[in-house]
Amino acid sequence: MTEAEAKRMLEIPAELWEECPGCHQLLYGRELERSLRVCSKCGHHFRLSVWQRVNFTVDEGSFEEWDADMPLYDPLSFPEYQEKLEAARTKTGVNEAVLTGAARIGGIATGLGIMDLAFIGGSMGFVVGEKVARLFERCALLHLPVVIFCASGGARMQESLVSLMQMPKTAAAARKLREARCLYVSVLTDPTYGGVTASFAFLGDIILAEPCASMGFAGPRVVEVTKMRMPPEVQTAEFQYQHGMIDMIVPRQQLHETLEVILRWATEHTSEASPHQEGQP
User: Fold this and answer.
1) The pLDDT of residue 117 is above 90
2) Helix (H, G, I), strand (E, B) or coil at 243
3) I want to staple 117 with a disulfide (CB 3.0 to 4.6 A). Which of 122, 264, 280, 281 is the partner?
4) 141 and 269: one domain?
């Protein structure tokens, strides 16, 4: 650290600094926001809330939420589960671990899904699966492309088999979108594990990932319990890219532009090939 940087740190209140989990450097909060919460020192991508992701991704003021009024769901009357759901809603400001709706990216009408790791680990239960399925089905009817930002720790254990059934349900809904000849872009963020990985996360026509994002079916703690031997780099975006599982690794600062290029190419070609008109969000 230079003398000028040290002096600047002393002039800024301590609560305005954040420590980078990657390089442990202190970063000025406002500068971190301007860099879309990517460390200027090591390139570490901080995890985002759904509203930060909306602000960083879509055209300003264009987002319209869908299915915001879905009720809490506790099929097994699992102990303290209802209280955890209510606390998660208060904490995150969303009704479940995925936010869905419509927006414009570079002026292109798009169906949007954003998973929230802060909502019970981004786990997939009935409501998450239902909202994702409805997103696919509605966009198929409106003839809209879909972009989903995935972030999840896996299935919602408090819902048992109900949670696991969301895997085939979301996969079937993704098929409806494909049959409507609409593009689906999946963006894998840190981390993406479990039932989400084994269903809609890896069903995208184009699969993107942020640098160094963790991904896989069984998370590191599950692998550790089973005592399986696995090199640490296997469950990374870079390894998956090298082995053909994802199409591109895109730094966050380039993501909006990359999505716009993909969506513009896809909508121009599908509008030429299909008699349907592009829907409006």
Assistant:
1) yes
2) coil
3) 122
4) yes
Alpha carbons 72 and 70: distance in angstroms, whole number: 7
In DSSP notation, 192-227 reads EEHHHHTTGGG--SEEEE-TT-BEESS-HHHHHHHT
The pLDDT assigned to 230 comes to 74
Q: Which two tokens stand for residue 182?
A: 């609409």
DSSP assigned state of 69? T
Give the domain extent around 218. 47-273
- Tens digits of per-residue pLDDT, 183-208? 999 999 999 999 999 999 999 999 99
Is residue 121 domain-shared with residue 238, that is, in the same domain? yes
* CATH code for the domain of 109: 3.90.226.10
In this prediction the pTM is: 0.88
Same domain, 149 and 92: yes
The total of other beta-carbon atoms located within 10 Å of residue 18's CB is 17
Instruction: Convert 103-120 to b/e letters by CB count within 10 Å (16 or more is b).
Output: bbbeebbbbbbbbbbbbb
Q: Where does the pLDDT of residue 278 fall: very low under 50, low under 70, confident under 90, or very high at 90 and above?
A: very low
82 with 14, same domain: the answer is no
Nearest CA-CA partner of 198 in 225, 219, 177, 226 = 219
| First vs last C-alpha separation in the chain | 49
- How far, in whole angstroms, is CA 261 from its chain's centroid? 19
Domains held by the chain: number: 2
- The answer to whether the beta carbons of residues 218 and 177 sit under 8 Å apart is no
Domain identity same for 261 and 122: yes
* Residue 191: cis peptide before it, omega within 30 degrees of 0: yes
Q: What is the pLDDT of residues 215-266, one digit of tens each?
A: 988 766 666 677 677 777 889 999 999 999 999 999 999 999 999 999 999 8
Query: Do 3 and 81 fall within a single domain?
Result: no
